[in-house]
Amino acid sequence: MIKFKKVFYFIFTLRFGLSLLGVLILIMIPAGFLSQGHAPSYYINQYGFVVGRLITVLQYNLFFSSPLFITVVLLFGLNLAGCTLVRLSKSIKSKRKDFGPDIIHIGILLVIVGGVTSAMTAERLQFYLKPGQALQIGSNLVIGITDFEFQKDEKGYPKQWISTGIMTDREGHKISDFMTSVNNPYRYHGITIYQYSYNKDQDGQYHTGLLVVRDTGKNIIFPAFIIIIIGIFTSYYKRIRNVSKSP
């Protein structure tokens, strides 16, 4: 029982939190050098059978939704929540009015919750369409392409790809027109349409390559950053005010 209490209290220590942060950074380094979301055969062809197989077994091809990443992030979130509650209770007992750091911690916790939600529930679909074609996504969303423009610079090198289209429900009722291009995705009510590629068919006609992402975690992450900013402002405002009052 004593050992269990020691482990329990250790989980909420700063030392454990810093250790988790170090582990998180270390396991994220390889993921930063790997292209995400490809089939296992891609990694075997790129890195050989042993390394490619290791990448897929550890789920580094889908790292940010892998059990390894989510487990470490959840442990870090648990540690941060415990530290926040301990600090908050001490602040209330001592009648200390500086709640800025606690607000920041709450914001970070919400970022973690939003990130894990995105990793576990976000829907991603890649596909190619030519103008005039449409594809149903999910139960009640249809994306149709009306035009695809492949812009080139003066030397003939690719400059920009621009897709124009329309979103409807499955009954054909219009939801929204859209335009998406490289580095300028289109966003609508939690749906993001990215322009990521193109190809040509046998007749020489261009097909646009789109990536559609439905991510509910962003609805948590954006307010969380606002909370963090409020916490930073609260912390520094009190310190600046105290300095200005000092002789």
| Main sheet properties | 4 strands, antiparallel
User: How much is the radius of gyration in Å?
Assistant: 24 Å
Q: Per DSSP, what share of the residues sits in E-state strands of 2 or more residues?
A: 25-35%
Helix content: 40-55%
Give the SSE string.
HHHHHHEEEEEEEEH
- The number of helical runs is 7
Give the count of structural domains. Answer: 2
Structure in words:
By secondary structure, the chain is α+β, with helices and mostly antiparallel strands. The chain folds into two domains: 2-122 and 227-245, no CATH class; 123-214, no CATH class. It has seven helices and eight strands. The strands form two sheets. Strands 1-8-7-6 form a four-stranded antiparallel sheet, with no helix packed on it. A four-stranded antiparallel sheet has the order 2-3-4-5, with no helix packed on it. A hairpin with a 5-residue loop joins strand 3 and strand 4 (158-168). Helix 2 (14-32) packs antiparallel against helix 5 (67-93), helix 3 (40-47) runs antiparallel to helix 4 (49-57) and helix 6 (100-121) packs antiparallel against helix 7. It is globular and about 75 Å long. It starts with a helix and ends with a helix. The mean pLDDT is 84.
